[in-house]
Amino acid sequence: MKKVAVAVLASGEGSNYRALQAYEGAPYEIALLGTDDPRAPALSKAREDGLPTALLPPEGFPSREAWEKAMVEVLEESRVEWVVLAGFMRILGPFFLRAFPWRVVNLHPSLLPSFRGREAIARALQRGVSWTGITVHLVDEGVDQGPVVIQRPVPRLPGDDEESLTRRIKEAEHHLYPRALHALLEVPFRVEEGRLLWADERKVRLLCGEPF
């Protein structure tokens, strides 16, 4: 069966890129890694893997839409069907999202709608929550506001600091993200009033596995 071509957009370390790349039995194939940051370790990892890459620093474009048009052109040339954000630090606007309607997916280190935006793990610790977690969601024009695909809780343990909690959240991300993408590609869904509705929730649970 022909695999779905996806692009990973990353601005950081690339650990979720590597988790997506290593996932066995994936119905997708990573066709390209794109980044806005020439210093991103994710870029080096993709090049080490022999993966095509696209580096588009925003400073070289007169506007966000101009940058988006350039990136969309690169993705279309690679016949990309889905876009997976993995620590990508740019907010995507209407032009980009219209090119991939409900086919841009993101991962956020909290149980949305709690702790949207940056420093989510640090803010969860500051608030003293007993549980935080991760959310895979489709991307809309809001910041961390798109339809939820799936969530996984991660407990705050006694003595946790930002480093230890981040480490366990990362482990949960690496487990869940490729499986959630698998579900999106294999299980029909629709979006109604900002909510993702699955045709077969049982199959989604089976594909995503038990809480990590």
How would you summarize this macromolecular structure in one to three sentences?
The protein has 212 residues and is an alpha/beta fold.
Number of helices: 7
CATH architecture group name of the largest domain:
3-Layer(aba) Sandwich
Fourth CATH level, the homologous superfamily of the largest domain? Formyl transferase, N-terminal domain
Question: Could you name the CATH class of the largest domain?
Answer: Alpha Beta
Shape call: globular
Q: What fraction of the residues are assigned to beta strands by DSSP? A: 15-25%
Instruction: Report the biggest beta sheet as strand number plus sense, adding barrel if it closes.
Output: 7 strands, mixed
Task: Describe this protein's structure.
By secondary structure, this protein is α/β, with parallel strands linked by helices. It folds into 2 domains: 101 residues, Formyl transferase, N-terminal domain (Rossmann fold); 105 residues, Formyl transferase, N-terminal domain (Rossmann fold). Helices cover 36% and strands 24% of the residues. It is built from 7 helices and 9 strands; from the N terminus they run E-H-E-H-E-H-E-H-E-H-E-E-H-E-E-H. Helix 1 links the parallel strand 1 and strand 2. Helix 1 crosses helix 6 and helix 6 packs across helix 7. The mean pLDDT is 95.
